Amino acid sequence: MGNGNGSGAPILIAGGGIGGLAAAYALSLKGFPVRVLEQSPEFREVGAGIQLGPNIFRALEKIGLKDAVLADAHIPPGQEMRDALTGELITAMPLGEAYFKRFGQPYGVTHRADIHAVFLNACRASNLVTLENNRKVADFEEGGDGITATLDDGERIKGRALIGCDGMWSRVREKIVGDGKPRVSGHIAYRAVLKREEVPDDLWRPDVVLWAGPRTHFVHYPLRRGELFNLVAVFHSDAYVEGWNAEADKEELFKRFQGQRPEVLRLLKLIETWRMWVLCDREPIKDWSQGHTTLLGDAAHPMLQYLAQGACQATEDAVCIAEKAAAQPDDLPAAFKAYQEQRYLRTGRVQIMARVYGEFYHARGVTAELRNQMLRARTVEDSYEGIAWLYDGG
Ligand SMILES: Cc1cc2nc3c(=O)[nH]c(=O)nc-3n(C[C@H](O)[C@H](O)[C@H](O)COP(=O)(O)OP(=O)(O)OC[C@H]3O[C@@H](n4cnc5c(N)ncnc54)[C@H](O)[C@@H]3O)c2cc1C
Fold first, then answer.
1. What CA–CA distances, in Å, run from 80 to 46, 195, 225?
2. Claim: this prediction has a pTM higher than 0.70
């Protein structure tokens, strides 16, 4: 740790989602005072389930939060992919002992609110982190030895640096990268969470199950030590509502999933109210730091969720930025460049490969047959090695 970490103004973090809070806590562990400026009236996660690959557990271990995340998580015995039209098991990946032996970390699933609460409680317990609500960062100015952020009510806040953790529609990114709006993928996700007892026994599965259909897929898995059941239905559509968490149209869902297996349709019918996400991403970039400002998480590298990695990559970012800042506390612009240098090819690869996985899940006709043939031929070891580029990181 350098000498200058605790001196001077705090590091400002715009956005208190998973990425912002993970970064705040990781920086506080290196001795930096941090102010988190969150636009919402409270720190809270909407949404539903989130999958946690071995790489996030490796990152969480470095900041001492792995056990706290595992305490609420569910550890599925396996992952499987089924054909949504025939029910055929296309491929399965056991997530038990052999998996743990290969990757040295588990595979978990958890509620977004649960992992967000772990970061929030860790930040609350740190006397170096200040958490502030109703603080929307509207602008900022570089000032030689630091940064001044301007909030939407005109208040100006001085910081030693600014980290934009303000998500897919990042205001900070707009100013330092300026690459317009995110790319709308044309894919829509409907998400819902049921209580365990609301799911008929013959439909409840402890695994992560993905039903691959023509231009659709449907994923389900338990959450919160098995007390909840998470469902995500994804399909291609031209409907477009900017932002997240809008209420969804059930009629369109059943039209898109017509003709699929009864297990799929019975589960879809259990849901009263779905929330809808219009899935967006961006092209990878390599320059997301400028002077005393940088980006982290979805603000830096928004990705489609097909590799289930947005929060995992944001947490890896958080650990990396804290390490780089601690290595050169008196030159944060250089530390931010070093952080970006270490991260951009990895996060870019996840952005690109997530698109490829989406194509794979939603294949139709002969392409779907080919997919099934290729995946059926894999051994368990093949399936581990095929994803090792991702899960060996962190
Ligand atoms: C359908 C779906 C499924 C997913 N599944 C997975 C999964 O299984 N595994 C996984 O790892 N990831 C998954 N993700 C991705 C993951 O949810 C995101 O990548 C992750 O939450 C990004 O975190 P973040 O902190 O960067 O951004 P966000 O969570 O978007 O947080 C941004 C925060 O900044 C605040 N903010 C915005 N603008 C301002 C401003 N100007 N000033 C102050 N505050 C501001 C917001 O209010 C918010 O609190 C999924 C995403 C979707 C849509």
1. 27, 22, 20
2. yes
